[in-house]
Design brief:
Elements (H helix, E strand, L loop, with lengths): L1 H11 L10 E9 L5 E12 L2 E8 L2 E10 L5 E7 L9 E6 L2 E10 L2 E13 L2 E9 L7 E10 L2
Antiparallel strand pairs: 1-2, 1-10, 2-3, 3-4, 4-5, 5-6, 6-7, 7-8, 8-9, 9-10
């Protein structure tokens, strides 16, 4: 039911689904093959004019400010993470399709293009299963690099 409400609000307010991130989350997971790690993520999310932002603090340390901008297509956003030193990490994309949210970023390793994808599957408004993967062939093949689960603490 909550996911249906979020979808309805997406039509009326493109930032409505992003408000789900606001609050404190506990993530348990990490890189594939490594022991699971518990991480506390505190998000302060607000609409600022035509933008939507989330300041993230990870384990008590300021991590970044993420700026979301709808691109006009239903459920699609561009995003930019700004680090505490003022540097930006490069434009990424977010596509929301119901409970499945997919983040896509472009990178470079040793001169080779790499795509990074994080998928979030909301099982309800307070639980997310996430998976991280990467592709070195333009998105044809994805290799899972990690994942885990998050739950809302507050």
């Amino acid at each position: 039911m909550a996911i249906l409400l979020a979808l309805f609000l997406l039509v009326a307010d493109p930032y409505a689904p992003l408000r789900l991130y606001d609050g404190t989350w506990i993530a348990i997971g990490g890189d594939k093959g490594a022991a699971p790690k518990t991480t506390r993520i505190a998000n302060i999310c607000r609409r600022v004019g035509a933008y939507f932002t989330c300041q993230q603090t990870v384990d008590g340390k300021l991590s970044n400010l993420i700026v979301f901008i709808p691109d006009g297509a239903h459920g699609h956003y561009y995003l930019q993470a700004v680090l505490p030193d003022g540097h930006a990490t490069g434009r990424g994309e977010l596509t929301i399709a119901g409970p499945l949210w997919s983040y896509l970023n472009h990178g470079d390793e040793n001169g080779a293009a790499v795509l990074y994808r994080t998928t979030n599957h909301f099982t309800d408004n307070s639980h997310i299963h996430y998976e991280m993967s990467q592709s070195r062939d333009g998105g044809k093949t994805w290799i899972t690099t990690g994942g885990g689960d998050e739950h809302r603490q507050e």
